[in-house]
Structures are given as structure tokens and as C-alpha cells.
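Quick log. Single chain, no ligands specified.
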Amino acid sequence: MKKHTYIIAFTLFTLLFSACGNNNKQAATDNTPAIKVHVNAVKINNNTPFLTVSGKIQATESADLSTRFMGYVNKIHVEIGDQVNQGQLLVSINNSDLEAKRAQVNAGISEATVAYNNAKRDFERFTNLFASKSISQKEMDNVAANYEMAKARLEAAKGMKNEINAQFEYANITAPFSGIITNKYVKSGDMANPGMPLISLENPKQFEILAMVPESEISQINKGITVSARVKSVEEELKGTVAEISSSARHTGGQYLVKITLEKPSKNVLSGMFATVLFPVEKQQDSNLVLIPQEAIVNNGQLTGVYTVSATNTALLRWLRLGRTYGDQVEVLSGLNSEESYIISAEGKLYNGAKISIQ
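-> predicted structure:
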């Protein structure tokens, strides 16, 4: 009887201890401070009846400069942001191998020149002898053949020299046009390889916008029409003219590339900025765009999502399917609707189920 009483008492003590532990643990979880967050309501863009698309500004004249042979970079003569003139030296590449090849070619040219001059004198002398019937036709043919071969060897040697001289132009990289250095991909001592970009150059005096137009609207866009463009980052309105229209969307997922030349952009407009382009044509398809800022997007591998607010004031990670980009805004194709809010910023690290406090 005592043994059974002892077992029951021990069991009750164990259950009581476990319950106290769970209560303490639950209390610790409940006392976790809430993360302060700022939220935005889903933005529906359906105001304008005209076609608007997002585009990116780039310099009309730009180049990534490279070399045609392998060699070590001796010196880079410019820095990012430098203004350079056409023909100015930008990068020097070690050309000791080319110097050695040029010496060999020059020696070959000297040897071929001597042989050519001797063959030419023999040809002229034997031509006179053949005219006086002092030599046979076979002897004349042999001399003529020797002369043509010597002439061909000399031309080949000169051709090799021209090739070496052309390669020397790629040892000293110069500016093909006047502009500004926008990037450097190597430093002194690096190995330069054929086709590898060494330095980038842009002409800041003329810009263009590359915009993607959906297939439902591209038939309305004509070359030469005037469009408006807004650069939100610098709060500037620009005018432009459609310069090129792509006739294929094979590699762009049903979006057609349209190139717009800008008219007199200010110095505040820089390459790489986003712009919203307004075409003077009516939209063929009415659509309510759900737009959210790119800074609210959460990336996890191939997945993209956004944190929303649950009914119990916790962070809820919602996976999204995204569409086109409009400047700093991105279109949400599915995953959000107009009745929801999303977290734009947080004063702490968010995770799924984190307690939040809306500010």
C-alpha cells in the first residue's frame, strides 16, 4: 500500500513540476518585446488612361574598353569620374612580348628584302638573256618563279609587321570618344585577357531611355512620336522621342524594347536612373496595378515575398509573384490585395511569427 502511495505522490510531483516549467516558459515567451514596424497600405495604380511603362536611363554613347591580347596591366592613368578627351591614354599594358615579336618580324623583313632584291636582279638579267635567246625557256621559268616567291615572302613579312603594329594599339588603351570614366575593372598588376572589360566610358551629354512595352500595347507605338518621362529620384520631367522599336520579344517574355532619345536632360540626370515613361496613347487593357516599393521585398533564394500584419499583430511572411518594375516600385501579380497592409521597415530583425508593434 505504501509503495502505491509513493508512486502516486511521485507522479503528482512530476506533473506539477512540468506544469510550473511550462508556465515559466510561456511567460518568458509572452514577455518578448514587440518589434516596432512601419506599414504601408497596398497601392492601386489605375489613375491614368494613358500608357505608362518603366524605363532605365543610359548614356547614348558608352563603351566597355578591352584588349585583344594577354598581358599585365602596367598602369591605369585615370580614376572613376575623370573627364577624358578622345584619344587620351587610359590604360597601359605590358607589351614586352609584342616588342620581341616585332624585333623578329623586322629581322624577317630585312632578310626577305635582301632575297627579293637578289631575285629581282636575277629576273631582270635573265629576261634580257632570254630576249637574246641565250637561255632556255625552263631556265627563264625557274628564275621567274624564284622572283615571285621572294616577292611573296616580303609581302608576308610586311603583313606580319602590320599585324604586330595593330596589336600595339591594344597595348595602350585610349578613349574612343570624349566622356567620363564610370568604372574600372582592373588595377595595376592584374592580368588583362582578350575581351575582358578593363574600363568603362560614357558620354554624359546625351541620354536615352530603354523601356519595355507589353505586346498588347506595342502596335500603338510609332517611331518619332514625342513622349514624357518623369525621373522621380531627381523630381524632373523630361521630353523624349521614340528612336527605335524592337520587332521581336523572343527573349524578353512578351515585352518589346523601345529606345527613347531624351531632349536636353539636366546635369542631375545620371545613367542608371529609373524613369516612368508616358506615351500619348490610350491603354488597350485596363488593369489595376498593385505596386509596392522594392525595399519592402524579402528574398529567399528564388522566392520573393513581403511581411504582412496578422490578426494577432505578428509578422506574417507572404510569398508573392512579381511582374514589371516601375522605377522604385514593383508590380505584384499575386499574393496581395487592396485590403491588406505590408511592413515597409522594422526596428529589428523580422521573422515569421515575430511580435510587432505598428508605429
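The radius of gyration is 37 Å.
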